Amino acid sequence: MSFLHVQDIHHTYFTKASATTALSDITFTVEEGEFVSLLGPSGCGKTTLLSIISSLLKPTQGTVLLENKPVSTAKNQIGYMLQQDYLFPWKTIEENILMGLKLSKQLNEKNKSAALNLLDQIGLGGVEKQLPKQLSGGMRQRVALVRTLATEPKLLMLDEPFSALDYQTKLKLEDLVSQTLDEFGKTAILVTHDIGEAIAMSDRVFLLSPSPGRIHKIFEMPEELKKISPFEARNHELYPSIFQSIWKELESLEPGKE
Fold this sequence. Notes:
By secondary structure, the protein is of the alpha/beta class. It has 2 domains: 2-77 and 154-253, P-loop containing nucleotide triphosphate hydrolases (Rossmann fold); 85-152, no CATH class. The chain is 36% helix and 25% strand. The chain has 10 helices and 10 strands. Strands 6-7-8-3-9-10 form a 6-stranded mixed beta sheet, with helices on both faces. Strand 4 (61-66) and strand 5 (69-70) form a beta hairpin. Helix 4 runs antiparallel to helix 5 (137-150).
């Protein structure tokens, strides 16, 4: 049985005046330790799908199973890393990274020590007593990653976590997040508009078509790219042809280009 099983997802938003179908016939599986990206034009339902997988939104139709159990029973096993770091500005970095453990009643000396050790591992040792405003955007996103991993989630949801950063910081963080998730054997789903990011970080890229969102095509990344860092993948000889293939498929999804 697959680690994550998304089956026959269909979702419609209803208002008094209209019904808008955001997703239709979405079915796929994700294996444990796999990194997949959801890529597609605006309005294809990427974030809606992420919300359904994480059980923040109940689909009109369909099921999502995590380790063969309804995902609604596994909320504590899902972690999030978003575009904004959402650190509490009045709390220290240490207080921020321990917040998830505190809320889930998992805060003890062992977990606290592990969280602080991870902060050190990703190059932020010594900032525990500082406030978020004293850190750069990239450093704050690293803090957000530690806070997410501290609760030891089985599945990570990454909703455009690098899009607000400058390009150099973004590339560095792609490598850091990829390496950290590999080391911990984590399963992750990334929502992104960035073709390069999807290619460089993923094992598979799911390209969604818009109105309503459907899986248009799945791109399996070659082993040569999976084995190297995202930065190295962007410079690999296979990268340009994969980029062109996905670009062409995205172009074909534009209105009037059937």
